[in-house]
UniProtKB/TrEMBL annotation, chains A, B:
<keyword id="KW-0678">Repressor</keyword>
<dbReference type="GO" id="GO:0003677">
    <property type="term" value="F:DNA binding"/>
</dbReference>
<keyword id="KW-0804">Transcription</keyword>
<feature type="domain" description="HTH tetR-type">
    <location>
        <begin position="8"/>
        <end position="68"/>
    </location>
</feature>
<dbReference type="InterPro" id="IPR039538">
    <property type="entry name" value="BetI_C"/>
</dbReference>
<keyword id="KW-0805">Transcription regulation</keyword>
<dbReference type="InterPro" id="IPR036271">
    <property type="entry name" value="Tet_transcr_reg_TetR-rel_C_sf"/>
</dbReference>
<dbReference type="InterPro" id="IPR009057">
    <property type="entry name" value="Homeodomain-like_sf"/>
</dbReference>
<protein>
    <submittedName>
        <fullName>TetR family transcriptional regulator</fullName>
    </submittedName>
</protein>
<keyword id="KW-0238">DNA-binding</keyword>
<feature type="DNA-binding region" description="H-T-H motif">
    <location>
        <begin position="31"/>
        <end position="50"/>
    </location>
</feature>
<dbReference type="Pfam" id="PF00440">
    <property type="entry name" value="TetR_N"/>
</dbReference>
<dbReference type="InterPro" id="IPR001647">
    <property type="entry name" value="HTH_TetR"/>
</dbReference>
<dbReference type="Pfam" id="PF13977">
    <property type="entry name" value="TetR_C_6"/>
</dbReference>
Amino acid sequence: MPRVADHDARHGQITDAVQRLIVRHGLAAVTVARTAAEAGMSVGLVQHYFTAKDEMLLATFTRVNGRFTARVDELVNRGEAEGRTIAEMLRQALAELVPLDDARRAEFLVRLAFADRAAHNARLAAVQRETLVGIRSRVAQAIDNGTACGEVAQGIDAADQALQIVAFTEGLALHAHIDPDGTPKPAILAALDGRLGRVFTGTCRHTQPG
Amino acid sequence: MPRVADHDARHGQITDAVQRLIVRHGLAAVTVARTAAEAGMSVGLVQHYFTAKDEMLLATFTRVNGRFTARVDELVNRGEAEGRTIAEMLRQALAELVPLDDARRAEFLVRLAFADRAAHNARLAAVQRETLVGIRSRVAQAIDNGTACGEVAQGIDAADQALQIVAFTEGLALHAHIDPDGTPKPAILAALDGRLGRVFTGTCRHTQPG
């Protein structure tokens, strides 16, 4: 009875094919026929899983966002196991939003393509907003954790700082994409460090020796 | 002999029509036929001015960017005439990048649409990069002017700060678009003020009384 597993696997093959097409040619070039060819399936099989192109795009966007979130969670878990500071974990997590290598560039291009499309599609806009709110609330939680453990000074407005930090990161990501030569990787990481350093000014009591 | 004036007027009518279509339906919906209908012209007349859709898009993007730059220059000229501080003029200029009203939202949607498209079109990418570099260098110039007159402390790296300030503004713009309720106008203006306030910490000697 491998039906559920098959279904999930096919679903993933199709949305991965959509992502590759977006990275290579842009969202405008995505059609059901091209997606089927890219995924090595028949058009009929793709249509069995997604009745319309919009459904296929929504599934792709949801999957890319889910993968990002899972990667950040993994980073945080590993960071906690290794006793990293909250600021370090946050810096690593935020750097995942910036097109600093091929994998992150592929994700960035998908987010960018959908940012345009979502301006005229309510369901895509909802996924986009939920993703953004989710990222911001994770950053706000990290700041609150920092306040509790001493890495962040008392009285910092976590929600406001989270909004500013995430907006800054996405702006850097956009500039790294538009003008990679003028926005080198070390400058981006230093800018993120500097921005976090204005909020994370203390030392966590839990990790302090003695 | 009104040929040149006619040409410019037609050109503007066509690119304005493209902009309206992008705002209303997205870049994917733009065709030569729809643009002709929106501009109230024949398809043949549009094709007389633009031999291909890509030419029409490039002209629209160039025009929107040019209009933004002209508006910022006007703001700065007026601000100088009124004796505003450099920080105030810069805040106003940066706020032009954020979708805070219908006019700025229309421009933002066009920039967003082209940001996606430019990822797969070298000529659009070049216009996009030039525009970004132009904005950054204007902000860097404003910081240098601030250093000369006393509004900015000595030793500030103008290029680095300009990069960070523009990236932050564009990130805020993206968030104001994706999640307007979570990014209200006062919060955006306060965030811009706060960011500029970290660089513009002094008072201009020219405008100081006494």
